[in-house]
Hints:
5-stranded antiparallel β-sheet
Amino acid sequence: MILENENGLLLKRIDHLGERDWRSDPCYKMIFSPFGRGEYQTPHGDITIDKHAFFIFNPMYAHKQLLATKEKFLIEVQPSLLQAASEQLGIGEREPEFSLISYRHPLIWKWMAFVRDFLSLNEDSDPSTNQFFLDNSLTQLSIMIIQYGTGSHQEEFPSFKSQVNITIVIDALKESYSEEWTLDEMAAVARMNKYQLAHLFKEEVGLSPYSWLQLYRLFRSQHALLHTNHSILSIALQHGFNSVSSYNRLFKKVYRKTPSEFRHFHGSK
């Protein structure tokens, strides 16, 4: 099933889920993995989207679908719609660049599940009804991914309500994100053993506790990159990274840019 208009499209299909051709689309593409693992190839390495997670491709970012488990569900949004949402929310006039990581957010998952269910129940409805639904869905999604999608417009990792033990750990990490943390120390805060914490954290957030902490540090550092003249080294150390090389590596993985390139690209607009 495909619904489309000038602002984007919504696609849901259960066939041709194997390898597809390379694509570079002039829009933001949000891909969900409702039932299991999704895999995509990019010029910089493969991307895995776990069950209930999502991933956002930036405009013109080359990718190739390798696998979608049981169903492919995606939404494309034109940059102009996303930029309008960004301006209305007071984020800024620049088009956001989303980080190249997949993760989970319960509000986005609930929104996606509602849209999928509506489409399944109304495939044979009046086309004008579905078009009205698409118009509203694209506007809603634009607002949600500006709020909860990780990217150049964010100053920290988007938060959400989680199980009590995980919320306690996340709050503690936010409060002392620049300090060194071990998994044992995180587990002590959660009052569980480190194996339980690692499993539960990954189930809730889609990331390991340490990966979440490193990404939180990175997003907190973005403000200093774009709005101060501090050196890359001082920004890295101030935000909890042990070295500028580890900071550079994570930045390159998340944005395919070094911190200096990110500063130049987003700070010059």
